[in-house]
Design brief:
Layout (H helix, E strand, L loop, with lengths): L3 E4 L2 E4 L4 E7 L8 E7 L6 E7 L5 E3 L7 E6 L4 E6 L8 E8 L14 E2 L3 E6 L1
Parallel strand pairs: 2-11
Antiparallel strand pairs: 1-3, 3-8, 4-5, 4-9, 5-6, 7-8, 9-10, 9-11
Length: about 120
């Protein structure tokens, strides 16, 4: 069973930055898609950013383009989300997840089968 553990969330003022980390229990395969998703109270879980573990492809939600950067450290088996210029509307629980299918890069949360427990990000005005 693959285990994912998010960290790095917290309270930050609008305009500030946070870096989220997701530690993966097993060596990730290059064919995996690794993603960040978020869910605010009363809302559906939504796509934030995804990356092929190989680094060959990335996709970002329109709401975060130019502000967030997804990356990975292969040697540490860790996924990151660098969040800059944070806005109150970024407030949510952020989850990392894995889609193990090769040859695809999908942004739909239901296609991801391994999930972390989430880390809270709160952006104040």
């Amino acid at each position: 069973q693959v285990q994912l553990v998010e960290s790095g969330g917290g309270l930050v003022q609008a305009g500030g930055s946070l870096r989220l980390s997701c530690a993966v229990s097993e060596r990730a395969l290059s064919s995996y898609t690794m993603g960040w998703f978020r869910q605010a109270p009363g809302k559906e879980r939504e796509f934030v950013a995804v990356i092929k573990w190989s680094g060959s492809s990335t996709r970002y939600a329109d709401a975060v383009k130019g502000r967030f950067t997804i990356s990975r450290d292969i040697t540490k088996n860790t996924l990151y989300l660098q969040m800059n210029s944070l806005k109150p509307e970024d407030t949510a629980v952020y989850y990392c997840a894995i889609d193990p299918r090769p040859l695809v890069i999908d942004i739909r949360p239901n296609e991801y089968v391994y999930w972390g427990q989430g880390t809270q990000v709160t952006v104040s005005s």
